[in-house]
Amino acid sequence: MDIMTVQSDLVATRRLEGLGGTSLKVVTDGRGGIEVACDPVGVPPGKQVIATRGTAARYAAGSGSMIADLTICGIIDNWEMDQR
Amino acid sequence: MDIMTVQSDLVATRRLEGLGGTSLKVVTDGRGGIEVACDPVGVPPGKQVIATRGTAARYAAGSGSMIADLTICGIIDNWEMDQR
Amino acid sequence: MDIMTVQSDLVATRRLEGLGGTSLKVVTDGRGGIEVACDPVGVPPGKQVIATRGTAARYAAGSGSMIADLTICGIIDNWEMDQR
Amino acid sequence: MDIMTVQSDLVATRRLEGLGGTSLKVVTDGRGGIEVACDPVGVPPGKQVIATRGTAARYAAGSGSMIADLTICGIIDNWEMDQR
Amino acid sequence: MDIMTVQSDLVATRRLEGLGGTSLKVVTDGRGGIEVACDPVGVPPGKQVIATRGTAARYAAGSGSMIADLTICGIIDNWEMDQR
Is D34 in Cβ contact with A3 (below 8 Å)? Predict the structure, then answer.
């Protein structure tokens, strides 16, 4: 899973049914990449989250018939790099 | 999902049946990458869209038997980066 | 799907059954990347094609039991970047 | 599979059910990339592991209904580059 | 599929059952990347091979229940870039 930061909502009124009514969030990774993730958790901007890809993202978005390829699956409490 | 900009139609007369008669669009991402996406939404050049990959792209293109690996799934109304 | 250019045949006499007798082609993308694609279309060197990845590549290669992860699915007639 | 080094635990109290109670680990690759992997093996920080992606990661995490996209699947005893 | 060079065996005594007893090989691509592939073909170090990813890698490794995400599927006899 990727460690990403939630930036804002993304509004896409005209969209395929397979996206459902899911909240879409603009998320960034640590290397400047910007992507859009489904957000079934409900995460405010500024929070660090873990997001999952592929078939796992469809399941995480609610069911295998969803057409998400990136879905937020948890809010990170804390993490650190091993200092050894 | 990726944020991409629709550039133009792509014409490929000789193609496998699994692509169906779907409209194909040349799309670009924010880092200069160029790809081809199925477009079941019907998006004119210049618009920003979200596109989905993998099995989600096949479903978004119409059914699991489609052979798309990138499909436009929504037109972006607006999005912004969190300024905090 | 990726826009790729067919370079040459690739000969691999000793290979797993799941590749079948499919023609294998060395293909390049616009950034200098080199990959190998199954070619059920029959494309001569020098042509620009679209190629699909993942489960779509297995279906495009003929069936879900194929072990391809990149398959040529169309010959490009023409494409252009939007000049606006 | 990727060769990765386990750095630390990642705590994410609020998470989707599909992640189960699996241990999550911050892992790094040899190029400075940081990701989060499910750890059904139980690996202490500092160890080099192999991790698998995609549908394989879901199965490796315990079942196809898991929503992992990266799972540790073995601890590396040793490996070396061919010096020829 | 990727063109990769087999470097050496990788020993991972403690591993998940889903990897079976398959031989694991350290493989490199042409850009300095290092990965681990299942090797059902039996390839000595120094050989150039084609390797497949994703669900295709699981099938190539023997069955859909394998947890490989990269599997060697053929030994390359020869390949060349088109010189035109």
Answer: yes
Q: What is the DSSP letter of B22?
A: -
Half-sphere exposure of B70 (CA within 13 A, CB side): 25
A4 shares contact with chain D (CB less than 8 Å): no
Cβ–Cβ < 8 Å for E32, D19: no
pLDDT tens-digit readout, A7-32:
999 999 899 999 988 899 999 998 88
Architecture of domain D2-12+20-75: Beta Barrel (2.40)
**Distance (Å, rounded) from C-alpha A72 to C-alpha E70?**
26
Is the pLDDT at A84 greater than 90? The verdict is: no
SS3 B66: coil
Chain D interface, best mutation among E59, E69, E70, by max D CB count within 10 A: E69
Structural element, H or E, at residue B44: none
Distances (CA, A) of A4 to A22, A36, A73: 18, 11, 11
Distance CA A17, CA A26 (A): 20
Q: Does C37 touch chain B (CB under 8 A)?
A: no
What is the total residue count of chain D?
84
Q: Which of C39, C37, C18, C10 is nearest to E77 (CA)?
A: C10
Classify domain A2-75 at the CATH class level: mainly beta
The span from the CA of C52 to the CA of C61, in Å, is: 10
Which residues of chain D lie closer than 8 angstroms to E11, CB-CB?
A: 76-79
Check: complex ipTM more than 0.95: no
How far is C67 from C18, CA to CA, in rounded Å? 5
The tokens for C36 are 């190998």
Give the strand pairing for C78-79 and B2-11. antiparallel
pTM for this entry: 0.94
